[in-house]
Design a protein that fits this description.
The chain is 30% helix and 24% strand. It is α/β, with parallel strands linked by helices and 338 residues long. The protein folds into two domains: 196 residues, P-loop containing nucleotide triphosphate hydrolases (Rossmann fold, 3-Layer(aba) Sandwich); 72 residues, no CATH class. It is globular. The chain starts with 7 loop residues before the first strand and ends in a 19-residue tail after the last strand. Bound molecules: iron/sulfur cluster (SF4). Iron/sulfur cluster binds next to loops.
């Protein structure tokens, strides 16, 4: 979908995810299409409830059974949304894996780290002997900065940074093509996070794995990712290379997000931008552009017609009527929520 020298690893097309709730269907992901390239780090950014974690879970088919999913998630030419349970068991871990925010809820508190890693290998590769699995694991954890004797520890005996490294080991141990990291550094303090990010970037380059970083922290994406996808209310607002989006944000929501991040150059009397209004209730999302009740550049067309995610330059796509033609664009401006 975008000019990129790398090959496409995952094609997401027209993806809709609707949760069934007592209050009615919640449109968590609405008509989302984008690609993930081989070997790239793509940052998926947005505020809580915008659908970014739902996107990650949809790629792994980890959503509750009562969820409606439509569209396509093409991985190696096959649509993940059509996989049987047997195909999914083989796919998860081996082709795609996920690192969650809190390692303590993903690791087994009564299982040693080495046993957990050996079990992960042997579930997917039943012919691998325990001794072979262990030597593979020792090499991997040492590369990730964990002394090999520490893999005999239980999760509670490790620091937060070490546990997060164990989670990366679990993510990498089967050599997947894509890792989804969902708020993977949120539980770390700022200094450990910065060191962890430097190491993560190096390791991912070395393994050649693609990574989808899901986060609310746009500064983290600036540091780590090659491209950024900004998500708002279940839709992609803007998608592009880190340099193009940070140098020249085009979507009013992206502009607001970047203006609300403190800068080290910020004058202490300067006030950060505060986005007007609140994120919409996705049981009854606003018609047209879902950002229109909060948008400082809203036009009459925005409340009636839904824009599409289209290329504005070869490295940047935007989902906004400001960059698309329509006869209704010339009508007078309407009020914005404050
Ligand atoms: Fe604002 Fe309209 Fe663009 Fe939506 S489509 S972001 S309301 S200008």
């Amino acid at each position: 979908m975008m000019d990129n020298e790398k090959e496409v690893l995952v094609e997401i097309r027209d993806l809709d995810v609707r949760y069934k709730t007592r209050l009615g269907p919640v449109s968590a992901v609405d008509d989302v299409s984008f690609d993930i390239f081989q070997g790239e780090i793509l940052g998926l950014v947005g505020e809580s409830g915008c659908g970014k974690s739902t996107m990650g879970k949809a790629l792994m088919r980890l959503l509750p059974p009562a969820t409606d999913i439509h569209g396509k998630v093409i991985f190696d030419g096959a649509d993940v949304l059509t996989f049987s349970e047997d195909q999914l068991r083989d796919f998860r871990g081996r082709r795609i894996s996920m690192i969650f925010q809190d390692p303590m809820t993903s690791l087994n508190p009564v299982q040693r780290i080495d046993n957990h890693l050996v079990e992960t290998i042997q579930v997917h590769e039943p012919d691998t002997k325990e001794t072979d699995a262990l030597s593979r694991i020792r090499g991997l954890v040492e590369r990730l900065g964990i002394q090999k004797e520490r893999i005999e520890d239980f999760p509670h005996q490790l620091s937060g940074g070490m546990r997060q490294r164990v989670m990366i080991s679990l993510g990498l141990v089967l050599n997947p093509s894509l890792i989804i990291a969902d708020e993977a550094t949120t539980s770390l303090d700022v200094i450990v996070e910065a060191k962890f990010l430097d190491e993560l970037r190096e390791i991912l380059d070395e393994f050649g794995v693609s990574i989808l970083v899901i986060t609310h922290n746009i500064a983290l994406v600036a540091e780590l990712a090659d491209r950024i996808a900004v998500m708002y209310a279940g839709r992609i607002a803007e998608l592009g290379s880190i340099y193009s989006v940070f140098d020249n944000p085009l979507h009013p929501y992206t502009k607001g997000l970047l203006q609300s991040v403190p800068s080290i150059k910020l004058d202490e009397r300067e006030v950060l931008y505060k986005m007007p209004g609140e994120p919409p209730n996705l049981t009854h999302p606003p018609p047209g552009c879902r950002f229109h009740p909060r948008c400082p550049e809203v036009m009459p067309i925005c409340s009636n017609h839904t824009p599409s995610l289209l290329h504005v330059t070869s490295k940047q796509m935007v989902n906004c009527w400001l960059y698309q033609d329509h006869p209704e664009k010339d009508q007078p401006t309407i009020e914005v929520a404050t």
